[in-house]
Structures are given as structure tokens and as C-alpha cells.
Design goal:
4-stranded antiparallel β-sheet, globular, RNA-binding, Isoleucyl-tRNA Synthetase, Domain 1, alpha/beta
Length: 488
RNA sequence: GGCGCUGUGGCCGAGUGGCUAGGCAGAGCUCUGCAAAAGCUCGUACAGCGGUUCGAAUCCGCUCGGCGCCUCCA
């Protein structure tokens, strides 16, 4: 099915066609690993996961998906420095080797990050590669040199800066946003690193080494420039190395449009002579309880915070899919709970489908294939998950499983399997056998006594025992014959 | 200040000028000793004002509110 996507570059929805017919190449801006991923991060990573799955399942493409990990920047340096408050005992002892410290620090958060991704159904197997910036230093240095050689960068005190004003004479600077240069150049940009720049608008490609910080040797035109890569250069270099230029789709959060992505475009064009991609897809921000998520407001949540509260991370995944990725989303606990219930309703329906009896009243399977094309059409249309799932619920409402003819069964199962290749929040299989709950003896006994009391129409005693059982953490529910005990 | 986004029923959230998305909550009914669970039924909302139009949540203008980027935050 033809996929349509909103392109931030052209500001419209356009039909998507990969450059190479047999494989879509896609790059996503990943995390800086100095902390646990928060909910906003999860949204920014669930977006490309959804996208690559839709490309595979609905578009029928193979996908080569790369998401970078920024492991060298001010934050990771600060976090791994001697005496850092964010150094975790599990990282081991700090050594005298600052680079060693950096890697121990980032390794810890990379592992945590991958765990978090897996928890919300972003599988490691979905990626072609998750490159760390520090593994591609030579490629970055090569790109920096190319830009210098092309005349669009200059060295100043051991750092290398991109020369925006000379670039503007050669090409456009401001593809993704409209830059007001009058305002821009006079801007109050304070360079806290005390580096000199020709203009406030120039950005750093390579940062000269500072005492006590990790660095890599580098020489530019005879000048010694030992230091570390700037943030933007990482992506430009790794894209070229792992995907080749130009590739098909670049994703990231809206906040990265400027300066990060704009600078990426400028660097790649200046150094490689090619724009990285012609399709930029951005996800909007996540807000919490109607306000921007921030530590000071006390509404800042990592995925781990929620898991600690007993939240099923798959409910988080489902919740993120309930709104369009291009609109801001308001995270609330009520909404999370609603998502959990909605998700379970579909799950129950899937279980029920497995139990469809020999009902041969109908033979028309068209409705299932119509459901499939309706749902997939929405997903193909710029990933409209909200409308897609609405069709599923409409179907469920119109077709209670008890009235479904047996001939629909295999088609429904095939549909839900396909859908779950994208959503990945359900179990496609028969309802699991009633787990033998590890119900304590005394609860079993109380339940049995209650049942006897009930049979003897001693309802007061029955209710009293039910209260006692729920105090113990279990719920007893009556069936036509007998009862079941569930954990609360 | 510059650039841009946004305001939908109790909550979340789709909506391409005309055909009352969907979910959750809530209410009623059925079932039940009572509950729970389940099933059935029920919601005509689009910030305000004005305009364009046969017709506006949707287009235009203004007002009010919220938000983002311009600060190495997804």
C-alpha cells in the first residue's frame, strides 16, 4: 500500500517512495546517555518504531533503521567526571582515565536505555545498528576536514566552527524553520565554553580539548586540534557511514529542527555535497497533566518511575499510539489507565476469537478484509493510529464475537497478527489456561466457607467473609456454579 | 522581539466545508441474595466575536487562553 508521510521540509503530506526500491533507509536521533529515558524520550523513539513497522507491514518494504547514541557531550562528560553526583555504584569505581570513566558511565545508561526500549516493545532486532558517537570519531574528523577544505569552517583556538555566513552565500541556511537573521546574529547567545566565534550564529563542529576531559587527537591544516566532536557532526558522519547519502527518512523531536537538524543539513551539504535526506519527520512533544514536563514542576517521569508504580509499559506504548505523533499529547494517569483498559478489551476479543464455535450462519468474509483495508489505509496515511484503532473498536462493537461465523476466524486471526506486528501490545493466541494462582490456604478456606454460607443463604456471613478476603488482597467472584478467586 | 503550533462533550483524543470517529469515565437496563464481571442502551461538543458560504469544528479576520523553537532538551 502506498505510504504518505508529513515532511517537515515541504510542510505537507506527500507520497513516500524509497530511493532504492528494495530497502528503506531511515535514521533517528537517539538519546544522549546521561540519564534514564523519560516519557518524552519514549514518545520520540516510539514514533520511528511505529514508522518502520508500518513501512514493513503496510508498505511491504525492507527497512534499514539506524538510531544513534550520543555518548560524548557536556552531559556525559559532566556525569562521568570525578565526584559527579550521578555516578552510580553499579558503574564500578572511577579510575584516573577519564575516557574509561566516560565509557563506564555511558555503558550503564546504554544498557538501561535498551532495556527501556524493549519494555515498550521497541525491539533491538528492529534496528540495523545503534551506533555510539565515539565509535565513529575518524569519520567525524574526516567530515570536519572536508568542510574546512571546502571553505565553510575555520579553526579558532583548537576548535573548529562552521561558518554560517559564508555558507549562506553558497546555499540556504534555514530549510526546516524560517530564520530571522537580523534577530539571530544579535541574539543573546552566550558561549559558556568561552570559545571564540566569528559570529554568534556559528556552531561548533569540533570542540578543542579542555583539561580533565576526554579527547581524541586531531590535526587540521597543521594546527593541533585535539578534542571531541560537536553534537551535530555525529549524526552527519554516522548517517553517511551506515546508510549512505542521501537516505530516505530522518526522524526526531520537533525541538531538534533547530539547530540540530538544520546544522546537520548544512554540514552534510558542505562536506559531502549532498543533503542527508529529503524527508524529515518530527514528533511533537509530550506534556504532563497539561504542562511541560519538567523536574521543577514535579511532573517529570522516566519510564522506570512508571514501572515502579506498577504500570505495564505496554500500556505506555498503546497510549502513545492513541494520539497522532504530530500533535502534542497530554499525558495523564487517567489516560494511561484508559489505555490499559482499551488495550485489554482488544486482547479479550482476540482470546474470544480463538474460541469461536462451529457457528456456520454466515460465509461472508468480506467484512474482515474491509476492516483490514480500513485500518491499514489510516496507518498508511501519515500513521493515523488514532483512526486506525477506532476502526478496530467499531468492528468489535458491531461484531460481538459470539455472533461471528466460524469462517471468519482464520481471517480475523491473520488480521490481528498483522496488526500486532505494528502495535505489538497484544498476545496473539488462545486465552491462557487459568493460572493456578498461589492463593494462600486461609483465603481458600474463607472462600469455601463463604460459598457454604451463601448456599445456606446466610448472606451477612458471606459478605463478611468476602470483605475479609479482599482485605487479604483477593477478590471472589461468583459464577453460575461456584466461584473464582482473583488477585486484586 | 522573531518564527511557528494550538484551544473539540467529565477526561484522553480523531476529524479532509455537508454524511453526529473512537477510547475511558458516568447513567440506565439485563443478570445477580447483594456485589464484581459480562452484555445491551444512552453523549450532538467544537474558546469568544465577526465574516465568507446554500451550509463552518473545518476557510478568513479580530479578541482571549495555552504551548514550542530562537538556550547542545525527544
Amino acid at each position: 500500500m502506498q505510504i504518505h508521510l508529513y515532511n517537515s521540509l515541504t510542510r505537507q503530506v506527500e507520497p513516500f517512495t524509497p530511493i532504492d526500491a528494495d530497502e528503506v533507509r531511515m535514521y533517528s536521533c537517539g538519546p544522549t546517555v546521561y540519564n534514564y529515558a523519560h516519557l518524552g524520550n519514549m514518545r520520540a523513539f516510539l514514533f520511528p518504531d511505529l514508522l518502520q513497522r508500518v513501512l514493513k507491514v503496510v508498505g511491504g518494504y525492507k527497512v534499514r533503521w539506524v538510531m544513534n547514541i550520543t555518548d560524548i557531550d557536556d552531559n556525559t562528560i559532566r556525569g562521568s567526571a570525578q565526584g559527579s553526583a550521578s555516578w552510580h555504584p553499579a558503574m564500578g569505581e572511577q579510575t584516573d582515565d577519564v575516557k574509561q570513566n566516560l565509557f563506564r558511565y555511558t555503558d550503564y545508561f546504554i544498557k538501561a536505555f535498551v532495556q527501556d526500549l524493549e519494555a515498550v516493545g521497541i525491539r533491538r532486532s528492529g534496528f540495523y545498528e545503534m551506533p555510539c558517537a565515539t565509535d565513529y570519531i575518524p569519520q567525524m574528523q574526516d567530515l570536519v576536514k572536508r568542510i574546512v577544505d571546502a571553505g565553510f569552517a575555520y579553526v579558532r583556538n583548537g576548535s573548529v566552527y562552521f561558518d554560517v555566513s559564508s555558507w549562506r552565500q553558497a546555499d540556504t541556511y534555514g530549510h526546516l524553520i524560517t530564520i530571522d537573521f537580523e534577530n539571530f546574529q544579535e541574539g543573546v547567545r552566550i558561549d559558556s565554553d568561552l570559545y571564540e566565534r566569528d559570529q554568534a550564529s556559528d556552531f561548533v563542529l569540533w570542540k578543542g580539548r579542555k583539561p580533565g576531559e576526554p579527547y581524541w587527537e586531531f590535526e587540521v591544516n597543521g594546527e593541533q586540534c585535539d578534542g571531541r566532536p560537536g553534537w551535530h557532526i555525529e549524526c552527519s558522519a554516522m548517517e553517511a557511514e551506515l546508510l549512505g547519502l542521501p537516505f530516505d527518512i530522518h526522524t526526531g523531536g520537533v525541538d531538534l529542527k533547530f539547530p540540530h537538524h538544520e546544522d546537520e543539513i548544512a554540514q552534510s551539504k558542505a562536506g559531502y555535497g549532498v543533503a542527508p535526506t529529503h524527508m524529515w519527520c518530527h514528533n511533537e512533544f509530550l506534556e504532563v497533566e497539561g504542562e511541560k514536563m519538567s523536574k521543577s514542576l514535579g511532573n517529570f517521569f522516566t519510564l522506570r518511575d512508571l514501572i515502579d508504580k506498577g504500570v505495564d509499559p505496554l500500556d505506555v506504548r498503546y497510549l502513545m499510539f492513541s494520539a497522532h505523533f504530530s500533535s502534542r499529547m497530554n499525558f495523564t494517569f487517567a489516560g494511561l489507565e484508559a489505555s490499559g483498559k482499551a488495550r485489554m478489551r482488544v486482547q479479550e476479543y482476540i482470546y474470544d476469537v480463538y474460541e469461536i464455535g462451529n457457528n456456520n450462519d454466515g460465509d461472508d468474509v468480506l467484512e474482515v478484509s474491509e476492516l483490514r483495508s480500513r485500518v491499514f489505509r489510516e496507518l498508511a496515511d501519515n500513521l493515523n493510529t488514532a483512526r486506525a484503532i477506532a476502526h478496530v473498536f467499531t468492528f468489535i462493537n458491531e461484531h460481538p464475537v459470539t455472533g461471528i461465523p466460524h469462517v471468519w476466524r482464520s481471517d480475523l486471526l491473520r488480521f490481528f497478527t498483522e496488526l500486532n506486528d505494528i502495535y505489538d501490545v497484544w498476545t496473539i493466541g488462545p486465552r491462557p489456561a487459568e493460572e493456578e494462582l498461589l492463593v494462600p490456604e486461609d483465603v481458600l478456606l474463607m472462600a469455601e466457607r463463604r460459598f457454604e454460607a451463601k448456599k445456606g443463604r446466610n448472606f451477612a456471613e458471606a459478605d463478611r467473609l468476602r470483605d475479609e478476603i479482599s482485605t487479604a488482597g483477593y477478590a471472589v467472584k461468583d459464577l453460575k456454579e461456584g466461584y473464582v478467586i482473583e488477585k486484586l
